Amino acid sequence: MKECDEKCETCSTEETCTDPKKEILMQDKAVSDRMSKVKHKIMVISGKGGVGKTTVAVNLAFTLAAKGLEVGLMDADIHGPNVPKMLGLDKMHPDVGDGSILPVMVPPRLKVISMAFLLPDTDSPVIWRGPMKMTAIRQFLSDVEWGNLDYLIIDLPPGTGDEPLSVVQLIKDIDGSIIVTTPQDVALLDSRKTVNFARQLKTPIIGIVENMSGLSCPKCGEKIDLFKVGGGKRSAKDMDVPFLGSVPIDPQIVEDADSGKPFILSRSDASESFEKITDKIQEFIKKGDV
């Protein structure tokens, strides 16, 4: 059978068509329809793991929602979906209605979807190759009832592989990428690769966030640079991309994440730094709206 290149919505044989591409074409149209109701889409990415990328994504989404905006948070880290744990949702499951998946709600206005919601238990691994991950991401975008959103924050796994490629292919109008790093040279090396990855895909770069930037001694108050400091700012300057700010190491962040509470709710140097980062992200988006 000769495969068809016509768009399904304009095809006279849509109902009887048996072309194997039909389902994918229809899903891609559904992605386009869903995303047309989302004003701004932001990817949170990193070159390597362990830099606090999910922490940044979760707290960014929560901060925007706390400002009165309608926000979605899509956990696209298929193999390591930790967003529900950080929001205290790890025992929740999405409902299904009228053929759509209803995202889990975090009051007052944050919608969340994650592979973790769909696993039988928290210890179950996802053992998938690339095509299966692409299918899952496509369904998160096409089948989830996101509704009208001001922001969709997409938390991606470390690296420059299947998942970020899939998101960029499916969402044609990504507003930009936030690149998370820590100050040490190994992380900075990978963050520079991530900048070039975004550039090759012609995705705007909102800026670099330097996480785990210094620790204030709880006893004497002296600042300790456990992972060096300032590397993210230097890397941003070298790569000619915006530097969004630094988030210091704070033991409270660990406690909050493990207990399912966004650290932005704890009044601390880290939360104040992050609020300033969020303001810069919104300024970048507003410039694009002009």
Q: What distance separates the N and C termini?
A: 49 Å
Give the low-pLDDT segments: none
Beta-strand level of the residues, as a percent range?
15-25%
Structural class: alpha/beta
Mass-distribution shape: globular
Radius of gyration: 20 Å
Instruction: Quickly count the domains.
Output: 1
Number of helical elements: 9
Approximate helicity band:
25-40%
User: Looking at this structure, what is the CATH superfamily?
Assistant: P-loop containing nucleotide triphosphate hydrolases
Q: Which whole number gives the mean pLDDT?
A: 90
- Count of β-strands: 11
Q: Can you characterise this structure?
A:
By secondary structure, the protein is an alpha/beta fold. The protein has a single domain (24-289), classed as Rossmann fold (3-Layer(aba) Sandwich), CATH 3.40.50. It contains 9 helices and 11 strands. The protein has helices spanning 22-35, 53-66, 83-86, 130-142, 162-170, 185-200, 231-239, 251-259, 269-289, and strands at 38-45, 71-75, 95-97, 100-102, 104-106, 110-114, 149-155, 176-181, 205-216, 223-224, 243-249. Strands 1, 2, 5, 6, 7, 8, 9, 10 and 11 form a 9-stranded mixed β-sheet that branches. Strands 3-4 form a two-stranded antiparallel sheet. Strand 3 and strand 4 form a beta hairpin. It starts with 21 loop residues before the first helix and ends with a helix. The mean pLDDT is 90.
